[in-house]
UniProtKB/TrEMBL annotation:
Residues in coiled coil: none
GO MF term set: S-methyl-5-thioribose-1-phosphate isomerase activity
Region (Disordered): 1-26
Entry superkingdom: Bacteria
One Pfam family named in its UniProt record: IF-2B
Protein name, per record: Translation initiation factor eIF-2B
The family this protein is said to belong to: Belongs to the eIF-2B alpha/beta/delta subunits family.
GO terms for biological process, alphabetical: L-methionine salvage from methylthioadenosine
Amino acid sequence: MRESRSGPRRPSTPESVTRASTDRDSGSADIGLGFLAELESWIATDTSGSAPALRSALLRRLRQAQADQPSMALVHQLAARALQVADGGAAREQKVPELRTELARSCEAERADLIAAGEAVARTAVELLDRREPWIATLSNSGTVRDALCRVRDSGREPRALCAEGRPRLEGRRLATALAAAGLPVWLVADAALPLLLSQVHALWIGADAVTDRGVINKIGSFATALAAREHSVPVYALAVRKKFLPAGTGALKIVEMPPGELWEEPATGVRPRNLYFEVVPLELLRGVVVEDGVLGPTEAAIVARERPLPEELAGG
């Protein structure tokens, strides 16, 4: 077996603390790690004088994090966990220093759990492949897909990747670069070319910013690519930790328009650029959702998503 070049996912660096809330290029798992780092920084600098004041300030901070990354279910679920920890500490009548310590410990635990969960998803994905030299297509910059492909290589196989560039920010180039650095042969193509080339691959693996009972939220272009995969009889899998599951009716979970200048800085008169990063891929187009302990079919994935609502204070209207 070859020596691993990928290794375990590292905790967020200090640089991540300043950019997680505005990060538009990383996969959602990496953004989740950045959220935890930002929350740790906030805890360390909080000046609340009482437990109720700390909870109120924390709630405002968590809601802002949700608003910063409204399409990221992982941010929503990690925020819910932080609020749960704060409420548990208040119920035990913890003093403010103790409550801060409890919140910081929770961030450490959630980081370790998230890393372990991502590794488990990667192991599960590897088990789907029965070829020594599989071609896997993907798009955008999913850290979970990246780690799974590297694990395929570390298992002694020879995976090859077909990556779409991920307009408008071209974050797919970052994924292609990382996979090439890990020793994988990589093709990088324009987003519009990916459906055409799917007949050459053995599977389409996509990341997931959220898994709901209606579908998987992922980078724009995922829907068309999944439709093309169906026409080519190519199996489509979304790779996601269970913390990314949310009911579709969650008000805080949104797909919002992004800066139009990313499409066209100075559009012609009468032209209005509409810049959407994300869309919903119906669960029916997927062979399954790869999670830590197996592969969920569309019906089961929908059931799991409906069972993971946010607390009312974070669910949104």
